[in-house]
Amino acid sequence: MDGFLTYFTRLKIPGPDVVRHIRRFWLASRRVGNVGEVLSFIMREVTQRLYPYQVRNRSIRFTDHTCLSITSATADVLTSTFLTENGLCFRAVGIDWKFCLPTSDGLWWGSRYTHPNALYRSDDQSQSAVLMYEFSHPITSLFISRQNVLFVCSNGIVYKGDQPGIFFKPVLQLSSPMSYFLFNNGMTELPDGTLIIGEYSSDQQGQSWQNLAYLYYSTDGGRSWEISDFFIRQGVNKRIYLVKYSSLLKAVLLTDGDHKKQLWMNPALGDFKAKTGYQKTGWCLLTPYHHQTGGYRSMAETGEGVLLGSDYPGGTNFIVKTADGKRFEKLVLPDPYRRSPVINIMGRQSAGGPEIWAASYSCLSDQARSLLMCTQDGGKSWVRVIDVDGTKHEVRLVSSSPDLYIAVTELGSDGSNHQHRVYKLESINPHRQR
């Protein structure tokens, strides 16, 4: 909700200008067509304060574990009661990964905060890394297929690594140099090897956002791509957040933004340019109305269901679970985390069973706390692992399975000079495999 973010700070300051800001906000919302989003936001704010809503306890249930509150990004080891109970800790690594992904041979590939244009490879669990390739612009996302083919997005271009880490060929030009696909969520691979990319961008044209919600798919391993403007024709006004295959639902899930924030499903895994009813070819719209909480930004699967994280900066945020793509259980992040979108979710297989880790983040207010949390029971309860003030620090999930890496960023007071430290989740006893 970009208009809301623009006026959020102004509306918090009491005084005679508040009425004027509200009027401007309403007119701007009408101009760009997101009145439905504003009304949905107001409805959630009201219902969140109603006693019957609170009695039904529709909030995420946190365990009693004491979380770690970070005040700097200098510690070598991060731990908490939950991590200690499980024989784990976050231990600093030598490489400041911004994004990193593993190949099946155990190598890690990624870009670094200190050298965002370059692709690095590590073969020693991220204690060191070798520069493999340098692009002319910063890397904005990465993806590795089941065939260990590496795809890199930079400056609105998707490159395919024909010789791993040695040569990259541009295979897809997105609509804008600002376009990319969301890391861990915006590119997926189907069981038959089809690759799908959802375009994510924030290009403004005059006083309106440019509509770049294109879908791209390849049936030849990423050498050539077809484009679908289906979602633009359906009225999606800005971009695609998530496109991801669910092995549980045996379907592709896709979410759009910014104004409608809808959830789509394609159970037939084909006909990406058409809309249809449930269980037929093409796309089925599951949440046609904004108040139904679509537009999820992140997704992970448990053995029992699919977990989706909402993207409502400054609004009410949810983690939503579905086991069949028909019924959705929506749980609110309780205050002080309610206004922080769930930026990323990933799964991890531990010795005790599957875990899901989620990171929420908001920098709008020091009252809207940000959180790294974990569930070991499929989302029935969550552990608060690391808590931060998003105006001073950020904690990001920077890897995908099987290993979990987080980046802790200490934000510079002038909007620059940020300090980054990357940690890997590992056993307290490094000689004991967990």
Gyration radius over CA: 21 Å
Overall pLDDT level: 87
- Report on the biggest sheet: 5 strands, mixed
* Total DSSP E strands: 32
Low-confidence stretches: none
Q: Cα distance, first to last residue?
A: 41 Å
The helix tally amounts to 6
Shape: globular
State which percent range the strand residues make up. 35-45%
The side-by-side strand order for the widest beta sheet comes to 1-29-28-27-26
The level of helicity is: 10-25%
Q: Could you say which structural class the secondary elements and strand pairing correspond to?
A: mainly beta
Organism: Larkinella arboricola
Protein name: BNR repeat protein
Explain the overall architecture.
This protein has 434 residues and is mainly beta. 12% of the residues lie in helices and 38% in strands. It has helices spanning 2-12, 17-32, 35-47, 51-55, 81-85, 230-233, and strands at residues 68-69, 77-78, 88-92, 97-102, 108-112, 115-122, 130-134, 139-144, 150-154, 157-163, 167-173, 187-189, 195-198, 204-205, 208-209, 215-218, 226-228, 239-246, 251-257, 263-266, 284-285, 298-301, 306-309, 318-322, 329-332, 342-350, 353-360, 369-375, 383-389, 393-397, 405-410, 419-427. Strand 18 (239-246) and strand 19 form a beta hairpin. The longest helix is centred in the first third of the chain and has 16 residues, at 17-32. The chain is globular, with a radius of gyration of 21 Å. The two termini are 41 Å apart. The relative contact order is 0.13.
